[in-house]
Amino acid sequence: DAGVTQSPTHLIKTRGQQVTLRCSPKSGHDTVSWYQQALGQGPQFIFQYYEEEERQRGNFPDRFSGHQFPNYSSELNVNALLLGDSALYLCASSLRWTGNTEAFFGQGTRLTVV
Amino acid sequence: GDSVTQMEGPVTLSEEAFLTINCTYTATGYPSLFWYVQYPGEGLQLLLKATKADDKGSNKGFEATYRKETTSFHLEKGSVQVSDSAVYFCALRDSSASKIIFGSGTRLSIRP
């Protein structure tokens, strides 16, 4: 079992550009959540996808959008990048409707905006 | 809204010392509580969890007890090792069982 895989591992973008990050959930999981972890901070919830729909969203602007595919994999898109978007982006997968389900995290994508 | 407050770091201890990292939470309902660990350059790994009051989570010598009366979930280990050096995050999952809310993390360094 490969667990949660994210790509790419590192990325450098210029302010104003757009970026797409990818996540494949752990085998058997149907729900994907995205988190932003700024340097020295705890992860902050961006949004969660289940059945190809955004189910819950944190306090992030519309520049942050996502998608979930029929195979449960997911993308995070960020438009009009700001320097403050530099962070580690973590993907977590879980089983939404299973009680007491554990979330498994990927290694993250380190995004640097210059 | 729900929140988690944990002991600020960094915490530096000698090998075999006793470890406590304090964590308190604010939540409506009955959240599940977690400790995650992040080793340098890696993602988050679940260390232990507790889903109801008075539950004790344990793993790899670490323990934490869900104390509803004090809204706390302090992490303890009787004898730390150099390999325990990492950042530790206290977290809760809200009653809708979806998003996880994290504390700001505590960096732990263990001296040989």
Quick structural summary:
With 114 residues, chain A is mainly β.
Task: Walk me through this protein's architecture.
The complex is a heterodimer of chains A (114) and B (112). Chain A is an all-beta fold and 114 residues long. Chain A is built from no helices and eleven strands. In chain A, a hairpin with a 5-residue loop joins strand 7 and strand 8. The mean pLDDT of chain A is 93. The termini of chain B are far apart. In chain B, strands 2, 5, 6, 10, 11 and 12 form a six-stranded mixed β-sheet that branches. In chain B, strands 3-9-8-7 form a four-stranded antiparallel β-sheet, with no helix packed on it. Chain B has 112 residues and is mostly beta strands. The A-B interface holds A 4, 33, 35, 40-45, 48, 55-56, 58, 90, 92, 96, 99-108 and B 4, 32, 36, 42-46, 49, 51, 89, 91, 93, 96-105.
What are its keywords?
heterodimer, A: 114 residues, mainly beta, 7-stranded mixed sheet, 4-stranded antiparallel sheet, 0% helix, B: 112 residues, 6-stranded mixed sheet
Oligomer: heterodimer
SS-derived structural category of chain A: mainly beta
What is the strand content of chain A?
A: over 45%
Mean pLDDT across all amino acids of chain B: 93
Topology order of chain B in helix (H) and strand (E) letters: EEEEEEEEEEEE
Q: Would you list the SSEs of chain A in sequence order as H and E? A: EEEEEEEEEEE
Write the topology of this structure:
The complex is a heterodimer of chains A (114) and B (112).
Chain A: E1 5-7, E2 10-13, E3 19-24, E4 31-37, E5 44-50, E6 53-57, E7 64-68, E8 74-78, E9 87-94, E10 104-105, E11 109-113
Chain B: E1 3-6, E2 11-14, E3 19-21, E4 23-26, E5 32-38, E6 44-50, E7 56-59, E8 62-65, E9 75-77, E10 86-93, E11 100-102, E12 106-111
Parallel strand pairs in B: 2-12
Antiparallel strand pairs in B: 1-4, 3-9, 5-6, 5-10, 7-8, 8-9, 10-11, 10-12
